[in-house]
Amino acid sequence: MWKYLLEKEFKQFFRDPGLPRMALAFPVLMMLVFPFAVSMDIRNINLAVVDNCMSKESSRLIEKCTSSGYFRLVFHGQSPDEAMRLMDNNKADAIITIMPGFDKETVSGSGFPAGIKVNTVNGTKGSLGSRYILQCVRSYVGERNDALGTAVPPAADISEKYYFNPGMDYKLFMIPALIVIAITMITAFLPALNIVSEKEAGTIEQINVTPVSKTAFIVCKMIPYWAIAFFILTACLVIAWAVFGYVCRGNILWLYIFTVLDIIVMAGLGLLISNYSSNAQQAMFVIWFFAVIFMLMSGIFTPIASMPHWAQYITYLNPMRYFADAMRAVYLKGSTPAELWYDVAGLAALGSVMVGAAVASYRKTE
Amino acid sequence: MNTEYAIRIRNLVKRFGDFTAVDNISFDVRRGEIFGFLGANGAGKTTAMRILCGLSRPTSGSGTVAGFDICREQEKIKRNIGYMSQKFSLYPDLTVRENIRLFGGIYGLKDRTIREKTEKMLGMLGIRDAGDRFATDLPLGWKQKLSFCIALIHSPQIIFLDEPTGGVDPETRRRFWESIYDTAGNGTTVFVTTHYMDEAEYCDRVSIMVDGRIDAMDSPAGLKKRFSAGNMDEVFRTVAGRAVREE
Nearest CA to A261 among A153, A160, A180, A174? Predict the structure, then answer.
């Protein structure tokens, strides 16, 4: 019986006008486009400088900023109104205002008469932008002090060393997370839609009136999507290695094992959704609801630790939180499931609840 | 197990909230009989039929289908019946052969048996050339014949047909009923709902459902005599005219 059902599902899958192409295009897009698109590295910050000093010192500060590579100088003049207008029109992201007497005061060490205004409509760009400016200012002050031999010691000498992702490469950080998103979408939401569309077409009734067991029907329905999930995982790993030279630090087997755990949770969720939806529109809405919450509350884009406490509690119910954490840890740090017992436990607990609820609510007989 | 009756139903009730779709019906269907299950739209025919097929649980009442309990042994019932729903419900993106193979496999037939049956079926349907066409591309009359054959693939004791001939021309309907006769002639019990009163004449016995109850049940000849009607159409209008429930 299984053989015939599987045969049916695979035939239908490959005959679908969109699905096979999507399965192929997904890993390619994910690896070659998204890592750049979702990068939180901020570059090309448009900088306006209101220079009321126009001295050698002020132009050294400006050169310090522009040579950092983060800034694009869009205005250098003396009119604060002009600079403000640029910011109002979104042409400038930050304004440095250098006061008259900047050169004398900085050289004498009596002060630093300059101000920074940052456009924080885009909060990330704004806060990173102001940090970059401060860095430039700091390094300018440091160099000038060295040059003058001033005895002013730097306030603090902090040296930083980054582990696991030394270049702070955002792409490397996002690749495991993007795999997580793809696998979740494919193993939870596509089978749910597939089952609901059989409900709509009435074909599921023809199956329900046969002695087919519900387990056989559902598992056969999901197997093609599981196959795609593993295909996508493998393809993504290969592309990440071939194109960017990234390799998984840990044992690749653990990536697959966590994927299996996630698939169990997602299969339960997908089945639950399809049990309670009578048409594709309903299912789509529920899917959209879960997809957005899963992604935003997963720690993939924003760190969970910086969420408010009540929001952190919600993330405990989010399977993507555990899966993303585990995949990143294995890929970037080389962690093992024993070290990630917390993620294993989270996925296992959610999995048993979801699968239990799904099986209990699935009925061949109403 | 009573060998005389294929279906025995006693005091069957199905309620959806406040609405009583099936209101305390009782009837027996003999083996090999063609039993017509009539009623206006919304009278409760499909609901009752879904209970008999094990797709729906009765609110109360008891009964057996093919010798198995309708409340507890739905899965055993399913092994012994065929069902053709009023909506075409084979897989549109599988070919005719693939649909036959799928349902044959589901009922546990061997690959070789399936292949033999497929050829026999295609020959019987006169659509041998259409075997590799997608089910969705077939004309309606062919789709219905195909659904009928597939419902019979595992030689069930009883076949349930829910408005099997809706929307096709009289000639196609007549030929469809010939196959129903052949099937009944082989000893299969046929339980059929229809809106066509000329088809009701072909049945051994008919019941007429009104507002969830069975208001009349007899052979077509018996009913015509009782209601002093010239044909089943008049009988149906007299009986179904009593309905108070809205469609």
Answer: A180
Instruction: Give the torsion sign (CA, A51, A56, A57, A61).
Output: positive
Same domain (yes/no): A206, A302: yes
**With contacts defined as CB-CB under 8 Å, which chain A residues touch B75?**
211, 364
In a domain? residue B245: no
Per-residue pLDDT, A87? 86
- CB-CB under 8 Å, B102 with A206: no
Taking the Cβ of residue B98 and every Cβ of chain A, the question of whether any pair is shorter than 8 Å is answered with yes
The Cα A182–Cα A302 span in angstroms is 18
pLDDT at B104: 94
Best residue of A198, A200, A365, A366 to probe chain B, by most B CBs closer than 10 Å: A365
Complex prediction ipTM = 0.88
Single-letter residue type at A245: G
**A220 vs B contacts (CB less than 8 Å):** none
User: Residue A173 pLDDT more than 90?
Assistant: no
DSSP of A122-153, one letter per residue? SHHHHHHHHHHHHHHHHHHHHHHHHHHT----
A270 to chain B, minimum CA–CA distance in Å?
22
Count structural domains, chain A: 2
Prediction pTM value: 0.78
Confidence of residue A148 (pLDDT cuts 50, 70, 90): low
